Amino acid sequence: MAGKRILLIIGGGIAAYKSLELIRELRRGGASVTPVLTKGGTEFITPLSASALSESKAYTHLFDLTDEAEMGHIQLSRSADLLVVCPATADLLAKMAAGMADDLATTLLLATDTPVLAAPAMNVRMWQHPATQANVALLRQRGVTVLEPDVGPMACGEFGPGRLPEVTAIAAAIGAQFADGPLKGRHILVTAGPTHEPIDPVRYIANRSSGKQGFALAAALAALGARVTLVAGPVNLPTPPGVTRIDIETAREMAAAVEAALPADAAILVAAVADWAVAPRTSKIKKGASGPPKLELSENPDILAGLARHPRRPKLVVGFAAETDDVIPNAQAKLAKKGVDLIVANDVSGEVMGGDRNLVHLVTASGVQSLPETTKANVARQLAARIAELLA
Ligand code: CTP
Question: Which residue has the higher pLDDT, 141 or 162?
Fold first, then answer.
């Protein structure tokens, strides 16, 4: 981030004090920081602290701008390389989603086409409220990078998602915004992990997918400069720096999240999507004299095949295929049947899913490239490089 100009909007939340630490971290990385505090922000920290640490004027009011007559607010936001909102409160996210501009911070956010990254921090119920979730989904759809908050104990005594991510993680996500590489300017969609198909409110059908390969791929694509949206099934893995993650549970939710993330230049569907959903039951099935319950299954949508035929089809559509026998012929058949550009055939004859290594063959209409067995991180780097070539 050396030499980059960051406009840091500090919202009014208890986590505002951490924005001071963020200023130091960004300056250590060689960036310059101009702080803007909302009225709420000034209740938690002073403009003087923000100004002293950034060695820049800290702005608070629209009419702070000496050259307001020349639309100084527009100048201020357009001269930045990135706008960072930290902490992004529920109120700020709502105003951003609605396009409100009733103070300096929201005016700057509306008056710019500079990329925006928001690091949310709020009470767990405010974060989980459907209004906030809808605002976040809308902002992400518009290209704003909204980081996932951390899970943990909160200042208000509750526990859950809503804590500001670690300052080093926010700085890494900011650094990733400036990543330069062959995929700079590209939006790439990745799915990862299993899906869970509920049987009743306490039980579900799942598979052994760990999500490791998909997460490694998302990280490798971001490292090459791509803007990555990662639609993740239930897994216990940290979000790679700079990647926008959308958590889902079922195949149908994954299909909807993929649709909402379009348009994309490429889509790589690594997820092990459940082929069937169970007819939903609203109450827990009890053991009874009538013996084990009969589960009525219905077929889930094939997200990969649907995307390959989609009116807004990404230029490059890539699928994975886990095979134990006839690995390459099966992958070639799948390539043709689903209408995709590349199938990564995953040889799972040696071990069950979930390990750290992988043996894959890259199958396209023009031939097969077999990679030696290696770590999932290495597979991800090689595959990301191949995707960059195919998109070039
Ligand atoms: N896939 C999908 N939606 C589904 C099922 C699979 O998008 N409902 C995607 C996976 O993400 C993966 C590829 O399709 O990229 C795997 O294809 P699939 O036909 O499910 O492969 P297998 O499970 O290996 O198929 P089969 O059981 O027929 O061998």
Answer: 162
DSSP 287-349: P-TT-SPPPPEEEPP-HHHHHHT-TT--SEEEEEEEESSSHHHHHHHHHHHHT-SEEEEEE-S
Ligand 1 atom 4 nearest Cα: 302
* Mean pLDDT value across residues 77-95: 95
Residues 251 and 108 in one domain: no
Measured at the alpha carbon of residue 48, what is the angle toward residues 44 and 53, in degrees to the nearest 5? 100
Q: Whose CA is nearest to atom 6 of ligand 1?
A: 273
Active-site residue, from 156, 324, 350, 369:
156
Say how many Å lie between the CA of residue 372 and the centre of ligand 1: 23
pLDDT at 352: 53
Tell me: do 33 and 62 sit in the same domain.
yes
Q: Is the torsion defined by CA of 167, 169, 172, 173 positive or negative? A: negative
Q: What is the pLDDT of residues 322-351, one digit of tens each?
A: 888 999 999 999 999 999 999 999 888 876
One-letter amino acid of 102: D
252 and 271 in contact (C-beta within 8 Å)?
Answer: no
198 shares a domain with 96: no
pLDDT digits (tens, 9 = 90+) for 283-322: 999 888 788 988 999 999 999 999 999 999 999 999 999 8
Q: CATH number, domain at 142?
A: 3.40.50.1950
Nearest CA to ligand 1 atom 8: 302
Q: Residue 205: phi, psi to the nearest 5? A: -100, 135
What contacts 361, CB < 8 A, 6 or more positions away? 327, 328, 331, 344, 345, 347, 368, 369, 370, 371
The CA distance from 392 to 382, in Å, is 15
Per-residue pLDDT at 171 exceeds 60 = yes
Tokens 């330069």, located at residue: 180
Distances (CA, A) of 64 to 39, 52, 176, 245: 13, 17, 32, 37
**Residue 156 among the catalytic residues:** yes
Q: What is the mean pLDDT of residues 83-100?
A: 98
Residue 182 resides in a domain:
no
CATH number at residue 350: 3.40.50.10300
Q: Give the SS3 label for residue 24.
A: helix
The answer to whether the peptide bond before residue 240 is cis (omega within 30 degrees of 0) is no
- At which of 149, 177, 205 does a domain end? 177
Collapse the DSSP code of 390 into the 3-class scheme (helix H, G, I; strand E, B; otherwise coil) and give the result: helix
Mean pLDDT, the chain, rounded, equals 92
